[in-house]
Design a protein that fits this description.
The protein is of the alpha+beta class. The protein has 5 domains: 178 residues, Rossmann fold (3-Layer(aba) Sandwich), CATH 3.40.50.300; 85 residues, Translation factors (Elongation Factor Tu (Ef-tu), domain 3); 73 residues, Alpha-Beta Plaits (2-Layer Sandwich), CATH 3.30.70.870; 106 residues, Alpha-Beta Plaits; 110 residues, Alpha-Beta Plaits (2-Layer Sandwich). It contains 14 helices and 32 strands. The strands form 6 sheets. It has an 8-stranded antiparallel β-sheet, with helices on one face. A 6-stranded mixed β-sheet has the order 2-3-1-4-5-6, sandwiched between helices. Strands 22, 23, 24, 25, 26 and 27 form a 6-stranded antiparallel β-sheet that branches. Strand 10 and strand 11 form a beta hairpin. Helix 7 packs across helix 8. The protein is globular and about 110 Å long. 42% of the residues are buried. About 2% of the residues have low confidence.
């Protein structure tokens, strides 16, 4: 097809503003799917996406539309909306020239709307602003248009008013996509170059690479080369998503589709790599992507130790499809063999855990999430650690640095006081406040990631009655007065329960944590002491009392020495049990670390 008649675009929006519904409606209107095949969330293939109503993986679809007698190819890449998946969004935008920025007419501009809009602006995309759900009784398209103009500088009269659910305004939007979005730029490279923007593994056909061809063309029978590692493969099939996989003769410049080339292992494919022809290779690779930075770390252990090899295979499979997730083997005296995993955020971690349990039928024990820290050693070396157990001896540490983020909150103005109080408790400092309208405010804070990564969002939603939204962006590591709290269960340190905290809150958090552990760990046949320590100093202690059994109940009189003898025997048994007994620590105990409420 003529490159002038191709349009590559993405739909970007805050979570729940109607991206997937709009994608479904566009496919129905262009005849890509029939009314009989149509169902909601067509592009969300995972069960977890359908159940939660969120998009986790970016997905592509090719549609055709006839405008003024000319056939146009529309390549749509549906993207996630949650802050944890912004890496997926940035990857998708690199394969596009335009973006539909969707805003909910009842909710207005939200924190992730702003973040995704800036991602699209940074990628130099043409943006079409779309106000969705205008048919709802609570819709305020005029007010929302003003917010878009105030925050993003896009005129409100340029916004398209639609309802993706009912189909209102979709035809006009389709015409606008063809008219206003640019065709792909002609690459000045003579050789074939294609960008891999995603991939997945098929048990029968090997690795399926999602590609955007930048120059030249690809067809079955071509011998291709991966520019990052020089490996070569023969293409067995090229095709497009419509939305199911459909074989085609070739993919030309500007087109989006997939290739299959008998690649047996996902590890051989790098997302962001450049594909070129083996007999006429390009000299220079495409820019690709920056490697994502994992910000949240957690240990995963199989509940049954015999499932370790099965868990290893499951992690291999998952990490290859999700390049923003990393893992490495870990061994804990309390929990056995497991893995230390890195995630972009807590929702990302939750999704990975759920996918592991569902797709591989493995029961998992997961430790409390931690963030990564930077350490400046006395010899000038800078180290990154992602677990309290990796913290070296205090005597060789010059300074400890923790990660800080720029935190953006959009909230109704009635909640400002309560949010300021919450932010103060979490060591956040206010940078600026900006009124979007008479009722809504955007607040910007500088915040330590460790303080906002677990339950900050839940608290925020509670304070604002569900109306506030947040987005954060990593700034860098800064020096902070941090200490490591070690938790000793039955006088044995449990690495998985240790924490790195700011000194100001260490003692209070230590005490609260032990109280929660006392409630979470069941009683044993012997007394179990729980202690929190900083260095060698014990700062708090709680005790789990032993089960009590009346060993004297079967006595029916006689000398008191008989009773004393039995009690003494019981006491000695408990003492021996305490020295050799194992304390069973349930999953709730690890998760109680996270709960910062009183």
């Amino acid at each position: 097809m003529n490159i002038e008649n191709i349009r590559n675009f993405s739909i970007v929006a805050h979570i729940d503003h109607g991206k997937s519904t709009l994608a479904d409606r566009l496919m129905l209107l262009t005849g890509t799917v029939t009314q009989r095949q149509f169902h909601e969330q067509l592009l969300d293939s995972m069960d977890i996406e359908r159940e939660r109503g969120i998009t986790v993986k970016a997905s592509a679809v090719t549609m055709t539309h006839i405008h003024e007698g000319v056939e146009y190819m529309l390549n749509l890449i549906d993207t996630p909306g949650h802050v944890d998946f912004s890496y997926e969004v940035s990857r998708s935008l690199a394969a596009c020239e335009g973006a539909l920025l969707v805003v909910d007419a009842t909710q207005g501009v939200e924190a992730q709307t702003v973040a995704n809009a800036y991602l699209a602006i940074d990628a130099e995309l043409e943006i079409l602003p779309v106000i969705n759900k205008v048919d709802l009784p609570a819709a305020q398209p005029g007010v929302v248009g003003e917010e878009i103009e105030h925050i993003l500088g896009i005129r409100k009269n340029e916004c398209f008013h639609i309802s993706a659910k009912s189909g209102l305004g979709i035809e006009e939007l389709l015409e606008a996509i063809v008219t206003f979005l640019p065709s792909p730029k002609v690459d000045d490279c003579r050789q074939t170059r294609a960008l891999i923007f995603d991939s997945h593994f098929d048990g029968y056909r090997g690795v399926i690479c999602y590609i955007r061809v930048m120059s030249g063309k690809l067809e079955a029978g071509n011998k291709i080369r991966m520019m990052s590692n020089g490996s070569s493969y023969v293409v067995t099939e090229v095709g497009k998503f419509s939305p199911t996989m459909m074989k085609v003769g070739s993919l030309g410049a500007g087109e989006v589709g997939y290739i299959i080339a008998n690649i047996k292992n996902l590890a051989n494919i790098t997302i962001g790599d450049t594909i070129t022809l083996d007999n006429d290779p390009a000299e220079k690779a495409l820019p690709g992507y920056q490697k994502p930075i994992q910000m949240v770390f957690s240990d995963f252990y199989p509940a049954n130790n015999t499932e370790y090899p099965k868990m290893r295979t499951a992690f291999d499979k998952l990490a290859l499809n999700d390049t923003s997730f990393s893992f490495e083997p870990q061994n804990s005296p309390a929990l056995g063999f497991g893995f230390r995993c890195g995630f972009l955020g807590l929702l990302h971690m939750e999704i990975v855990q759920e996918r592991l349990e569902r797709e591989n039928d493995i029961e998992i024990i997961q430790t409390a999430p931690t963030v990564s820290y930077e350490i400046l050693l006395t010899d000038g070396e800078v180290k990154r650690i992602d677990s309290p157990s990796q913290l070296p001896d205090r005597s060789i540490i010059e300074e400890l640095r923790e990660p800080f983020v720029k935190l953006e909150l959009i909230t109704p103005k009635d909640s400002i006081g309560s949010i300021m109080k919450l932010a103060e408790q979490r060591r956040c400092s206010l940078i600026k406040t900006d009124y979007l309208s008479t009722t809504r405010v955007m607040m910007e804070f500088k915040a330590p990631l460790a303080e906002i990564v677990y339950d900050f969002y839940d608290q925020l939603k509670g304070i604002s009655k569900g109306y506030a939204t947040m987005d954060y962006d990593f700034i860098g590591f800064e020096k902070s007065d941090l200490v490591r709290i070690e938790i000793l269960v039955n006088k044995i340190p449990v690495d998985a329960l240790s924490l790195i905290l700011h000194r100001s809150s260490a003692e209070i958090r230590g005490r609260h944590l032990l109280i929660k552990l006392r409630r979470a760990i069941p009683k044993h046949q012997f007394e179990v002491p729980l202690q929190a320590a900083i260095g060698g100093k014990i700062i708090a202690r709680e005790t789990i009392k032993a089960f009590r059994k009346d060993v004297t109940s079967k006595l029916y009189g006689g000398d008191v020495t008989r009773k004393m003898k039995l009690l003494k025997k019981q006491k000695e048994g408990k003492k021996r049990m305490k020295s050799i007994g194992n304390v069973q620590i349930p999953q709730q105990a690890f998760m109680s670390i996270l709960d910062t409420s009183d």
